[in-house]
Amino acid sequence: MSYAVKEMFLTLQGEGVQAGRRAVFVRFAGCNLWSGREQDRASAICRFCDTDFVGTDGAGGGKFADATALAEAVTGFWGDGADSRFVVLTGGEPMLQIDDALVEALHGAGFEIAIESNGTLPVHPGIDWVCISPKADSVVVQRTGDELKLVWPQPGTDVAALEQWAFAHHLVQPLDSRDAVANHAAAIDLVMARPKWRLTLQAHKALGLR
Hints:
Blueprint: E1 3-12, E2 22-28, E3 62-64, H1 67-78, E4 86-90, H2 100-108, E5 112-117, E6 129-132, E7 144-152, H3 159-162, E8 166-174, H4 180-193, E9 197-199, H5 203-207
Parallel strand pairs: 2-4, 4-5, 5-6, 6-7, 7-8, 8-9
Antiparallel strand pairs: 1-2, 1-3
Subunit structure: Homodimer.
Pathway: Purine metabolism; 7-cyano-7-deazaguanine biosynthesis
Domain Radical SAM core: 18-210
């Protein structure tokens, strides 16, 4: 199987429980909740995405012929040293492309594998750290994992139902939009009212990181 990657880069994880950790980000092209075209946003299931996942023309992106080639590219971005290797598979929706061969290749290269997924497809059982970010009008089938990251506000979301899903951490992240002040206040209000949740912010944006 070949893999279509929009971009790949070395950075610090900016969100969630793993925030601040050195990581190679692999952003896969394609998503099942939005085409990525602005003319389709209004009719998409997910309308607030702030990520360009269309094509393979981003820095470090491209078509990789097989899992070995992609794992070698990830290793190249990590650089020297085998300690604490960490890769984050994101998108778009990474589970459209992740398979046994890729998980085996990345583990074989010494990487701990994290995923950031919308949860509409089952996550590969070999993934080491599972972060699910549910979208209000989607059908989420992956209801277990390490962290549930709820972008807020999302009208129509049943927060009480999400609290029953089997995640070690329940996180609320303010929606990045023109209404940032109101969205931050809404996220804080949710945590204050429902203490099972914790606030997470996009530190990489504040720090000027990708």
